[in-house]
Structures are given as structure tokens and as C-alpha cells.
Amino acid sequence: MPSEEPAGYLGKAQKTLEKAKVQIGDRISIQTLDNTFEGIVIPRAEIGADDQHIVLKLDSGYNVGIHVDRIQQLKHLQSGKIIEPELPAVPRKTKKGLPWVSILSTGGTIASRVDYHTGAVNPALSADDLYTVVPELGDLANIRADVLFSEFSENLTPNHWTTIAKQTAKHLEESEGVVIAHGTDTMGYTAAALSFALQNLPRPVILTGSQRSSDRPSSDAALNLMGAVITAYQAPFAEVVVAMHRSPDDTKIALHPGTQVRKCHTSRRDAFLTINADLLGEVSDGKVHMLVDDSAYRHRNSKRKLTLQPEFDTKVALLKTTPGMTGDLIDSLIDRGYHGIVLEGTGLGHAPASLLKAIERTQEEQIPIIMTSQCIWGRVQMRVYRTGVELVQRGVISAEDMIAETAYVKLMWILAQTRDINEVQTRMRANLVGEITECSKRSQYEEMSHL
Amino acid sequence: MTKIDYEKVGALIGIEVHQQLDTRTKLFCSCPTKIREDDPEFTFIRRLRPTQSELGEVDPAALFEFQRGRVHIYENYDDSICLVEQDEEPPHLLDEEAVDFALEISLLMNSQPVDEIQIMRKLVIDGSNTTGFQRSVVVAFGGSIDVNGFTVPIQTIGVEEDAARKIRENGSQTYWRLDRLGIPLIEVATAPVMKTPQQVLDTALRIGQIFRVTGKVKRGLGTIRQDINVSVKGGAIIEIKGVQKLNLIGQVVEYEVQRQLQLLKIRDELKERGVRSGQIKSMAHDVTSLFEKSSSKVIQSALKRKEGVYALVLPGFAGMVGREVQPGRRLGSELADYAKFWGGVQGLFHTDELPNYGITSVEVTALQKYLKAQDVDAIIIVAATETASKEALKAVADRARQALKCVPDETRGPLIDGTTRYSRPRPGAARMYPETDVAPVAVTQERLERIRQGLPELPEEKLQKFREEYHLSDELAGIMIRSLRIDLFEHIITQHPELAVTVAAALESTWRNLEREGVDVEGIPEEQIALLFDRLAADQFAKEAIEELLIWLAQHPEKTVDDAVVDLGLGVISHSELKGIIDQIVKANAAMVAERGERAVGPLMGLVMKEVRGRADGKLVNKLLQDAVKTQMKS
After folding, report:
1. Which helix (H) or strand (E) holds A40?
2. Closest-CA residue in chain B for A210?
3. Taking Cα atoms as reference points, which of A158, A407, A149 lies closest to residue A260?
4. In a domain, B156, yes or no
5. Min CA distance, B21 vs chain A (Å)?
6. Do B288 and B355 lie in a common domain?
């Protein structure tokens, strides 16, 4: 961690360290009125830390925070060794007979390790790193690793989706399947984006991540990654899927369809649920087990020619309707030149009457408005109540049983190809890659919500 | 074995005392700190993966367990365990009540609180923590306590999460219950300065005493645990983890010193014999054919499972493997511990104990001949699968090589008699890193001042109060100060100061007598004991009934004192009724009164008390009896 400014330190604490020419990793001793501490200066926690304390890691391994006002003497003992995290490289030998699988990293810490000197968590990114951190991978497949970028998933944009799609297309030519390591927050959006961008897939594309970071012994990362790799070379399908824990148990990995998957819990390992559809399959004991009929998915066929359409129109907004909401937000989107709006309405797909005027404006301006439901489960049906009918009369397009996030991604993808309102309407309502189902099955709600 | 001269052998002992706190919530979530014995409502399954440091180091024992496919099954209750314990939700804030308590103890021990508490993760991947680490903080450094005039320096005072409770093991599956996980533990670590078992016991008692004067700790078996580290000159620092019973501490220390001395002696003898490490080959020989007709039950059942018999030669070890290192434990037991841990075998045989256990001298001779072993060599035999046997015998060979060097660094676990068993290699430098999910906690001067204002009296001050204000005898006051029930005692006597002597006697001498007789007084709910003295103060029965009531309550832990009074037919009898009974007894024994005069009161007292025990106060009975005897003498 060779930085000029002591990491995370601010104000008084920073000045104290600078004055003593102390950097992160240096060994110092601090004398206070009643004690003397000797240890290594470690980075200040980024969250919840004030500017009053300096943190030392003592030889016992414990960290201690010392208030700068109580320091009587600060002695610099030894400059820190800059320890470049170096793992004993497991020689990466191509094993004959093992399938090739690509792992593309976009960020998150699907594989990482802790620097116990400073507590920093370093991502493991190269294939060698991955073999070292999850040695079992080497017995499953030959890994082709590529780092696309290193971003928290909440910072990913449609431009990143485009890059991921293009790189995935490239890797699909050589590998049996492509695994994409991704932060979990927006993994569902990216899965939908890739489902539209990569059509006519010859082989599977699997997104995976972790809900407990991989520096912890209890991390779900290794099992998820192994499940994804197994799916990449073994699955009978050629679909975009999300591979994450099926339950709190470290036993099964669920395979969710890319356009019908949503993060539904903030912290549980099994945060992802398939919405309004059937779980495709699961991985357990090293094998992919399909949970749907053969006819329910596109079969793997390496000769099939992929259709790549990786562009997205970023001038699209996703808006949740709320009690008391006025037309201001929609007006503002029109004024700012937005090309399309997805509404997350209430119930069957309703919006307050106070929005009707603004919605009429979108109709005049030929801006498509798509209606989804904040109920998450179920289908939008705007012909049951008068409110819905009035919305339909003003050109609002039903998203059927598409989840809001997928409708948002789909609209971006369509608008990148056409702005023609009729064309947009037709394509939004058509099932392109499994994002809309014709029948709503009872089990798709009960089973998925673990009732 | 001869008595140990602790000074001479250079024993140095330190202890870490861990005590569960009686806080409202757990350390990092709002669940109750409640242990449950009803059937768990649901379970989930996890595996823990060893993580690597930047040096590529992995805890070998942990890695081994992982590779062996160890699976952890966690037992839960939906109403008292939340997603935090299940490692399905990040920890909440560090519990303020527990921190206050640790600061209070720090001040009582003149330890210096840190300015800002940093929350750490200590890697523990045996499954006892769902996260794979234990969250732990140091709250204060330094300070000391006085133990009968001897100053014991304190190194650190901290707070950490208690671990899950191991319920059982079933092959490669370990069952844990999450009720205990997250209960705050205070940890006080002394410097390794103690030299005798007695000093260690006294120090543990003293620390426990200081904990209890605060009135904020849990009681009962398992709520206090001590880790003891013991070394002797030329030996190693051995950590014995989880000694639960105070009366075991002295024994554990003595046996560990003994063990290290014996191991050093064995080393010296092996050296004298000229045994060298290089002679010990980790070579497991398949000797199944020699034992096909063996009458040993262990071997028979192994063969029935289609497993084999494997042997290892330890050159020059004859007579050493059978050498006792602790009562009932031999060097062979230490080898067996390794074989069980690393090979997962049930146990081993060694030639120092053979022929025995159904293995005949003919078989032993054949074995020696087959392995070309000499009389000075020892042979180790295991009966298991080939893989398990090889792992086991490799571990035995490793341990035997260490026997030539010195005492191996180990973490050991106590057995019920105070001897110990190998539990795992001693971890290297503690692998700790910051808990980034919980913000550090500043310890402000205002907070310390507030705690300083509310500090409880130290035991010495209490002792004085017990003697002067509550009129306890020196002896009883001294006993009460060391009592596990001191806070209950104080609680009761603040309500009923006039009963202080009675309460103290009941909670100590009566209590201990009953315990000795096997009465489960520990199981009586505390509120019933408090109620008992409320009722006594209200004259609902006489103090002579206390013992009987405690026995009844111990037998009916779900019932109340009032139920007991009814069921036992207690309840104070009226003055006139009492007089009637006394008159009757005196009349019936008129001859005795005529003969002995006033000296008849003694034996008659016994007869009356038998009749009215628990329903009348002894002093009153005595007075009325004297009157009645006098009247009788006059007539």
C-alpha cells in the first residue's frame, strides 16, 4: 500500500502522521500518559471513522486506536515493507481432457484474500490467483481469466454492459461457457442486458457473485464460482443465467433465468429468486440437474451463430409511482429529452390520476411509457379497473409479467435500435428471450418465496 | 509420582478467564443471551474454507479438516436466533452494555482503557463460529490484581463473542447449536507469572470474585471457562483451553507440569539409547495377513468392514510408548491422539501393552519377525482403511520424532480427571484482521467518568460491610465474599437486612450440604429463592423449614415457594397451639422431668422440634418449654 497520503486518515490524525513522516505500514511506537504502544500503522476504516485516532496493529494481532491528543511521543521505528501480495503460484498447466471455461471479472470480490498486515482485501484476478484461492477449479476446467474492470456493481453503467457483452461474445468462440464474476447489487440488470445483447447463444453465459466476501472462511463465493464453472461446461442449455446459492445451505447452487431473476434480500446467500418463471436447474455434488423440460430452453450447440447487439440507449428512466406523486418527475424527464420511461406502478399496474396529464404529454412527444408492477410477482393487467383503462388509452404499454428491471433494460436495448413508437410497442410486448411468459403458474410464487 | 518442586522445574503459568455476561442482548445483535434445551426448529449446512494470508499460509489443521470434507450443521430457533448468528446478515453495532461492563472491570483492575476500541476478526474455522472467525476486541491493557498479597499483572481485558455449542459429531458432520453464539464474554488475561497450582487457582478465584461483585455475569456450569498456559524450563508453552470447573484448575496445572517433565525425561532416555530422528520412517506396513484369525474384537470388526491392519516400527522406543506421562495416560496415548486427529482412526495398539486386548504373544512375535523389529523397538498397530491408517501412522511417526526433540507446541483440551488430550497444533501468530462491518467505538472520558461513579465495592469493602452492617461472623462473611451466589445474597439482604445471617447460612452451608447429597439446588429459579426469604420475613414459616423447602423446590423446579408451603404442611402454628403441644409432651414425659429437673429441657426440645419443625421458631419453643418444665416441676 505505497501511498503518499496515509490511507483513510483525515484532519488531525493525518497531520500528526505527516508531521512524523509516518506512512501506512511503518512500525512506530506511541507513548501516552499511561501506556506505550508499539505496532504497525494500518489504514483507517473508511466507514464510521473520525479524524481523532491513529490505529496501530500490535504484535498480538489486535488493533488499537490511540487518540491524537493523548500522544506524548511518537517514534518512527522502521519503514514499512511494502508487501506485494504474492501467492505461491500454482503452476498453471493446461490439463488435457479438461474443458476450457472463461472467467471474466467485472468487480466484486468473488475471489480475494486478506493482507493480514494491514487488513486490506485484495482481489484475486488472474487465473493463477483463482487456482490458488479456489484450487478445486483446476480439477474442473482449464480457466481462461480476463479482467474487464474492477467496479462495484452499483457503479456499472449500460456502457459496461456493452463491454461485457462484446468480451463475452469473443470468449464464447473458444470456451465451453463464460462465467462473469459480478457484484450482486445489479447482477440482475446485467443478466437481463446480456440476455438481450447476446441472442442465439451457442453456449451458456453464467453470472455469479457472493453475498459474503471471499476473504471470509464462510464465504459463499467459492461454491458459487465452482457451480458457475460446472454449469459453463456441463449445462445442456445455451442461456444467460445467474448462479447463486439456492438456500442458506452450502449444498446447492440455483440457476436462474437471466431475464427473470431479482435480488430480493439484502444479505442472505439465497438473495436471488426467479420471478414469474421456473428455476432452470441447480448444481449439486458437481453436477447440473435441470428442473424444467428439455423444451423450455435453448440447447447448447457450438455451431450456432451468435447475434451480438450490445447497444443500449441510456436516456431511459425507471420511476416508482407513490401515493401523492405528481406529474413533475415525468414532466422533468420529458423536458430533459428522455427517450423512454418505465413506470413501476401499484397493484395490477396503476398510477395516480395526478400523473395522467404528464402521461398525455409523453404520448404527444412519442415517448414510450411501459407499465410494470411494484408487487414484483404477478402480471400487469390494466383492463380490470378504470385507472388502468385510462392509462392504456394514453398509450401506456403493459410489460405483462416482466419484472421492472428487465423492462427497463429491454426498453434501453430496443430504443438503441428504433425510436418508432409503434415498433417499440410491438417489440416490448413480444417475448424475445424468455422475459415474458404466457401462463402464470401457482408454484412460481409459492415455491420461489419459500412459502 | 513424586511431588513436584515447582520452583526447581521453572513452571510459569498464566490464565485467561472467560466469563459470560448477563447482558440483555448478544454482542452484535439483539437476540437474547439464552441457552435452550428444547428441540431446535430448523438446521442449515455449511462448510468453512481456510483462507490464505499473503504468505500463502493456511492453518494446517483447518485445511486438513476442510479437505476431509467436514460439514457443519447449525441448529436454530426462529424466535431467539436471527440472521446475524446464521451469518446471513452483517453484525449490528457492538453492544454498549458489554463494553460498559468490560470498562468497569478494567477500572476495578487498574487497567488502562484504550482510546478507541477496534473490532477484530480472529480466524477460527473449526465450525464453532458460522462466520469462520470470532469477533474480538481489546478494551484495556495492563493493570494488576492482588491475590493474597501476590501481585498478578494483567495483560489485557477484552470482550468477545462466545462460540456455538457443539452438540454432537457424526462422522464428518458436526452439529452446533447457535443459542450460545454471540453471547458476550469478558476475557481477562494475566501475565505468565504464577508458579504453583494453588496460585493459579487463587488467581482464578480472585478474578471470578471481581466479576461477581458487579452482579452482571451469568452463573452456572459453562458460563466461566479458563484457558491455562503452562510451561516448564526446557518444555513448551502449552495452552489448555476450556477448563470449566474451578476445582480442576490445580489438577490440570499439576498434570501438565508432570507431563512436560515426563516427556523431557523420555527424550533424554531415547537420546541415551542413541535413537535418531532419521531412523523413524513414516512407513506403514500392511500386516493384515498376520491378523486374519486374530481374536481381537477391534481387528475382527475392522476386517469385517473389509479394512486392514497396518503397522509402524518405532526403533528404540520399546518401553517408552508405555511410559506414563500423566495418570492413566502414556506416551502411547499421545501417539493415539495424533492418530485419531490426523487419521480419523478409533485408536491404536502398541507393543508395550501387548499381548493384550485379544492379541496373542504368538501374533506379536510373528509381527516382530515380519517387520524385522528388534526387542528395543516398539511397534504401533492400527486397524482401519488403508488411507486412514497411513495418515494415522504418518502422524504417529511425526509425533515420535518430536519426542526426540522436546515437548511439541500444542493446544490441549481437559479431560474430566484433569489430564489433557491433544486438540490441535498451536496456531502461529494469531491471524487477525479488522471487522470492517462494525465501526470502531471511541471510549470517551465522559463515559469512563460515568462508569467510575457507579463502580461496585471491591470484595474487601464488601467484607467489611457484611461484618459490620449485617453482623456476619468473620468466617461467614469470608465465605460469602467468595460465594458464587454473592449477588443473590446481596439482592435478598437489601430487602431483609435482619435475615442476613440466616440467608448467608442457607445460601452457603445448607446449600453445599444439599449439593453434596445430590440435591439439584442449582436448578431452583432465583426468584423462588428470593421469594422464600420474603415469606420467611413475613413469618409464613420458621427458618428451620428452609432446608426442607430447598429440597422440595429442587425437586419441583417449575413450582413456587407457596406451593411448597402448602405441600409440606408448613405454616406457623399459633402460640396457643404450640403451648398445647409442649404441655402434652412435657406431661407425657413427667417422669423424666421429675428425675432431671431443668436438664430435661434438652432432650424434650428434640421431641417438640420433631413435632413442630418448620412451623415454629426454635427460640420461642425453647422459651415456652422452659416455662412448661418449670410449671411441671412445681406441680
Report:
1. strand A36-41
2. B88
3. A407
4. yes
5. 22
6. yes
Domain that holds residue A422: 316-429
Give yes or no: A315 in active site.
no
Cell output for B472: 456476619
**Candidate list A128, A185, A250, A420, residue with the active-site label:** A185
Residue with cell 501467492: A87
With CB atoms and an 8 Å threshold, state whether B54 touches A219. no
Catalytic residue among A16, A57, A106, A109: A109
Half-sphere exposure at residue A393, Cβ-oriented, CA atoms within 13 angstroms: 8
Structure confidence at residue A109 (pLDDT): 66
**Are A292 and A280 spatial neighbours (Cβ–Cβ below 8 Å)?**
yes
Q: Which range (B24-28, B50-54, B370-374) has the least confidence?
A: B50-54
Has residue A2 been placed in a domain?
no
Q: Give the number of C-alpha atoms closer than 13 A to the C-alpha of residue B309, restricted to the C-beta side.
A: 24
Cα separations in angstroms, A364 against A132, A368, A369, B295: 59, 10, 12, 97
**Euclidean distance between CA atoms A356 and B251, whole angstroms:** 84
Question: In the annotation, is A168 catalytic?
Answer: no
Cell representation of residue B613: 419443625
Query: For residues B493 and B496, what is the distance between their CA atoms, to the nearest angstrom?
Result: 5
Which helix (DSSP H) or strand (DSSP E) does residue A105 occupy?
strand A100-105
Q: Do the chains contact at B431 and A35, CB–CB below 8 Å?
A: no
- Check A53 against B116: CB less than 8 A apart: yes
Cβ-defined contact of B50 to A116 (cutoff 8 Å): no
* List of chain B residues whose C-beta atoms are within 8 Å of the C-beta of residue A223: 47
Q: Do A73 and A162 fall within a single domain?
A: no
For residue B51, give the nearest of A45, A215, A251 by CB distance.
A215
Domain range for B17 is 6-271
- Cβ contact (<8 Å) for A65 and B436? no
Structural domain total, chain B = 4
Asked whether the CA dihedral A105, A111, A116, A121 is positive or negative, the reply is: positive
Q: Is residue A87 part of a domain?
A: no
CA distance B25 to B634: 71
User: Over the stretch B116-174, which tens digit does the pLDDT of each residue have?
Assistant: 999 999 888 889 999 999 999 999 999 999 998 899 999 999 999 999 999 999 888 99
- Total beta-carbon pairs less than 8 A apart between chain A and chain B: 148
A133 and A28 in a single domain? The answer is no
3-state secondary structure of B395: helix
Nearest to A61 among B90, B430, B442 (CB): B430
Nearest to A61 among B83, B117, B429 (CB): B429
Mean pLDDT by runs of 10 across the 451 residues of chain A is 60 90 90 89 75 89 91 89 53 81 84 61 66 83 89 91 98 96 95 97 96 88 95 98 96 97 96 95 97 95 96 98 96 97 97 96 96 97 92 96 98 98 96 94 70 40
Annotated catalytic residue within A220, A259, A263, A321: A263
> Which residues sit opposite B350 in a β-bridge?
B380
Rounded to whole angstroms, the Cα distance separating B59 from B133 reads 13
- Give the pLDDT confidence score for residue B215 in this predicted structure: 81
Cross-chain CB nearest to B115 (options A53, A119, A215): A53
Q: State whether B560 and B585 are in the same domain.
A: no
Mutate to test the interface with B, among A70, A86, A115, A218 (most CBs of B within 10 A): A218
Interface probe for A, chosen from B432, B437, B443, B447 (most Cβ of A below 10 Å), is: B432
Residue A19 belongs to domain with CATH number: 2.30.30.520
* A109 belongs to the catalytic site: yes
Contacts of B54 in chain A (CB under 8 A): 83, 85-87, 113-117, 122
Mean pLDDT of B491-503: 92
User: B531 near B553, Cβ under 8 Å?
Assistant: no
Residue A89 placed within a domain: no
Closest CA to B76 of B41, B47, B37, B36: B41
Answer for the pair B7, B204: CB distance below 8 angstroms, yes or no.
Answer: no
